[in-house]
Amino acid sequence: AVGSCRRRRLAPLNEDNGRFLLLAALIAAYLSAGATVFSALESPSEAAAQLRWNRTLHNFSRIFNISLPELRAFLRSYEAAMAVGIRVDALRPRWDFPGAFYFVGTVVSTIGFGMTTPATVAGKVFLIVYGLFGCAGTILFFNLFLERIISLLAFIMKACYERQLRRSGLLPPNFRRGPSVSGVGSLVGWKPSVYHVMLILGIFALALSCCASAMYTAVEGWNYVDSLYYCFVTFSTIGFGDLVSSQNAVYQHQGLYRFGNFMFILMGVCCIYSLFNVISIVIKQILNWVLKKFECRCCPKCHKSSTRLSRRNAITPGARLRRHNVAAEADGQYDSDTEGRRLSGEMISMRDLTASSKVSLAILQKQLSETANGYPRNVSVNTRQNGFSAGVGALAIMNNRLAETSDSR
Length: 409
Fold this sequence. Notes:
It comes from Prunella himalayana. It is found in: Cell membrane. InterPro entries: 2pore_dom_K_chnl (IPR003280), 2pore_dom_K_chnl_THIK (IPR005410), K_chnl_dom (IPR013099). Belongs to the two pore domain potassium channel (TC 1.A.1.8) family. This is KCNKC protein. It is a single chain. By secondary structure, this protein is mainly alpha-helical. Among the domains are: 76 residues, no CATH class; 174 residues, Helix Hairpins, CATH 1.10.287.70. Helices cover 68% and strands 0% of the residues. It is globular, with a radius of gyration of 30 Å.
């Protein structure tokens, strides 16, 4: 029953497919809930605004003796002028070099405010080619930034961790890290918690948004809530375009403000991108937890058998097999003694229990010794067999750098 249930889980719905389908269902539910909330919040305001506009339009037509079709034709011309960047108030030129630089920055970062768009056919064709390579290069830059910010945080947290070990007496006072573990990238022996990294990135993103909002409130004249809203929409690359900074014709200290605006947007996008990736790892862990809860529910007979096993045995054969697999990967000197074992649910023998305890104790002593001396743990040979075994992109960076996502945890 156990073997048939395992085969049923592995083909065709394995763990990755199950996680994908569960995430798709949760995203669909999340989208539906968000649409319901925003519809309830914004729909009355939209209806009231439409009613006020119709009243204003009719009053204007009656007072100035202009027919409604002529007035609507004039308003359509004004909307077309707005689409190409013409406003009633004096604004900065859209396609001078600073304006064009601002535009290409929003293109490659995928912010896409929409306040400036190419009007010529040549400009639209060039944008397709330009955005293809620009967006790819910027995503690579975000991934490299993610890797370095995680490495920096891990280096600082590791120094704090070693200081804590010295205070507790587990490390000698004159201990110095060797060259094999002193580098920022050599974090195999100790990895920071994904939750600590998420907290630090969240605090940094909040502080950066608050500082940027104070600048926009003082320079642009927005209220603070609108400034915070603009920071989130911009830093998360949503880019609605209802609020856009640095669009007036003249500012006080204009060059300094443009430079500060560029730096805030650059650092904000990089930081929020890193934070989003860390949060995605936490969501993945939640999905794994949910899948474990539903494990073997497809087969009531197997679930019933596993429940009876857990009541009869404090240590199940499956758990002991998993411990031996970990032992074989962590240190090659331990031999497996699973040969001839019965997997039908009987209690394990005292010899198996003693051997399992010895192996677990040896692994524990080995890990404690490596932690105290600063030596990295051995990495499984299987992870070096191909370049894509640990994944690619931001998730691979997080898997290699953080403790909760490592296979050896």
